[in-house]
Design brief:
Elements: E1 21-22, E2 24-26, E3 29-31, E4 38-42, E5 49-54, H1 58-74, H2 81-97, H3 99-110, H4 114-135, E6 153-157, H5 163-176, E7 180-184, H6 191-202, E8 210-212, H7 217-225, E9 231-235, H8 238-248, E10 254-258, E11 264-267, H9 273-285, E12 297-301, H10 305-316, H11 337-352, E13 356-358, E14 374-377, H12 384-387, E15 394-400, H13 403-411, E16 418-422, H14 426-435, E17 440-443, E18 462-463, H15 468-472
Helix pairs in contact: 2-4, 3-4, 4-5, 9-10
The chain binds NADPH dihydro-nicotinamide-adenine-dinucleotide phosphate.
Residues 157-161, 184, 186-187, 216-217, 220-221, 224, 235-237, 240, 243-244, 259-260, 292, 339, 342, 389, 391 line the site of NADPH dihydro-nicotinamide-adenine-dinucleotide phosphate.
Length: 478
């Protein structure tokens, strides 16, 4: 239990001025949808309706793709890299200027703690635009030939777990390389993308270079299947990723997919225990576990198992769950009722299959979607909670005796997005890192992101890389 109680420290939401309803951002302007359909976006912490958002149909997607094509051919691809860079630098600076507003809006619409949106998401959004602004006039030095060409119009579909950050991962490299974009944010978290559209206007970005079409899965499908798209970039579930890969297989579209994960966070007996426990907590309870690279499988060396579990349980009892806008909150709301149902269902399966479930004493708010930090021990590799992505604040703990056994268990997954290794031995870190089938391996840390560092997966975690020099390749005709 916490040694003392914290007084509430809510961040003011006065800085955000929500409109009652939002149109689609096409050709530099907000416009209504052709067939007049709309949906509501709510705060998952309170179920309060925040705004009404337009549902784009195929005719709207077509308008957006046409605007992006025109902007590509007549404006954006004709600009020298240093001119494109100026726009990207301008966007980055406006994101910094409006950082508090964007952080509050992200926490309202997504449910994540303000501490995370303020200190992680939004600074990384600005960093991605700054980083790619730097590349825009240096592409001939990126290692893809003397005059790398853009691809054309990119259709980009993003999920709800890091709404504005995923937008930045997609839009910044696309624009830096000379492409124009049509982006569809997730149905449950469209508000920061729509505010980003205002930022594009504020930065005087030429009309049509960025288009934002809101809607649900059908809008995403219409976008990726549109014949006017040259490049598809998707982040989301493996199931939808497969569908997109199938839909694009017979076209000339270049596709990158960033899908699910079931990462192993591996703690050896010589690891600094307190530091490792912080890493375990950050690995799975950061962003309510709605993280594709979350350390959702904890592999602990048997000799330190009792100590790690006791220390982890003590630490979890100090986490504060509640109002995402409270600056002391560690664990916010689950993003949607559907995601909460999925987390509940898989947790029940875990119990039914014989694993032991534990959560700290934790009062859940009555309104909204909430799930307490949860740890399953006695998990075997065959259990569904050790194999399937739960995408919530649920940790499955397994044990091992030797590095070889840890490696085998870590790699025994259909996914391969990330992994963590905790040990004081540099040689063991290198031995593990070279054998783990994971796109990112963190050593003595977890969930650290940087625009200079490529991110992406093996196996069912998708293909292609985002970030760094490698990420540029996805937006160049190489
Ligand atoms: P989805 O993969 O369905 O959603 C990702 C994005 O794709 C959203 O914008 C979604 O729209 C859109 N979309 C849905 N169907 C299609 C389609 N047929 N063609 C094109 N675009 C489509 O993820 P969910 O939100 O349904 O989450 C389900 C599970 O996926 C989670 O429980 C989690 O396990 C995993 N997931 C993994 C993520 C990752 O980063 N790897 C991110 C999000 C989820 P809409 O929002 O309207 O449905």
């Amino acid at each position: 239990m916490p040694k003392f109680e914290y007084a509430p420290a809510p961040e003011s939401r006065a800085i955000v001025s929500l409109r009652e309803s939002y149109g689609l951002f096409i050709d530099g302007e907000f416009s209504p949808g052709v067939d007049g359909r709309a949906f509501k976006t709510i705060s998952p912490a309170t179920e309060e309706v925040l705004a009404e958002v337009t549902e784009a149909g195929p005719a709207d997607v077509d308008r957006a793709v046409t605007a992006a094509r025109k902007a590509y051919e007549h404006t954006w691809s004709q600009l020298p890299g240093r001119e494109r860079a100026k726009y990207l630098f301008r966007i980055a600076r406006i994101v910094q200027e409006r950082a508090r507003e964007l952080a509050v809006l992200e926490s309202l619409d997504n449910g994540k703690p303000i501490r995370e949106s303020r200190d992680v998401d939004i600074p990384l959004v600005a960093a991605h635009f700054f980083y790619h602004a730097g590349w825009a006039d240096k592409l001939e030095y990126a290692g893809y030939g003397p005059a790398p060409r853009p691809l054309g119009v990119a259709g980009q579909v993003i999920p709800w777990n890091f709404p504005l950050l995923m937008l930045a991962w997609k839009i910044a490299p696309a624009l830096a390389c000379g492409n124009t974009v049509v982006l569809k944010p997730a149905e449950t978290t469209p508000l920061t993308a729509l505010t980003f559209a205002e930022i594009c206007q504020q930065a005087d970005l030429p009309p049509g270079v960025v288009n934002i079409v809101t809607g649900a899965g059908e809008t995403g499908r219409a976008l990726v299947e549109h014949p006017g798209i040259d490049k598809v970039a998707f982040t989301g579930s493996t199931e939808v990723g497969r569908e997109i890969a199938r839909a694009c297989a017979s076209s000339r579209k270049k596709v990158t997919l960033e899908l699910g994960g079931k990462a192993a966070n591996i703690v050896f007996e010589d690891a600094p225990i307190d530091q490792a426990v912080e890493g375990i907590v950050n690995g799975i309870f950061f962003n309510q576990g709605h993280v594709c690279c979350a350390g959702s499988r904890l592999l602990v060396q048997e000799s330190v198992y009792p100590e790690i579990i006791a220390s982890l349980q003590r630490r979890l009892a100090t986490l504060r769950l509640g109002d995402p806008l409270d600056k002391n909150t560690d664990v916010g709301a689950i993003n949607s009722a559907a995601q909460l149902a999925k987390i509940r269902e898989l947790s029940e399966v875990g119990e039914a299959e014989g694993a032991q479930r534990w959560s700290p004493p934790c009062e859940l708010p009555v309104k909204g979607f909430w799930f307490p930090p949860t740890v399953f021990t006695g998990v075997s590799q065959a259990h569904r909670i050790a194999r399937e992505e739960i995408f919530g604040p649920v940790l499955s703990v397994l044990t091992f005796r030797t590095p070889a056994e840890a490696l085998e268990k870590a790699n025994n997954t259909p996914y391969g997005l990330s992994a963590g290794v905790w040990t004081e031995k540099g040689s063991l870190i290198l031995w593990m890192a070279s054998r783990l089938r994971a796109g990112v391996v963190w050593a003595n840390t977890f969930n650290k992101f940087d625009p200079t560092s490529p991110f992406g997966g093996y196996k069912e975690s998708g293909y292609g890389r985002e970030g760094g020099r490698h990420g540029l390749e996805a937006y160049l005709d190489v």
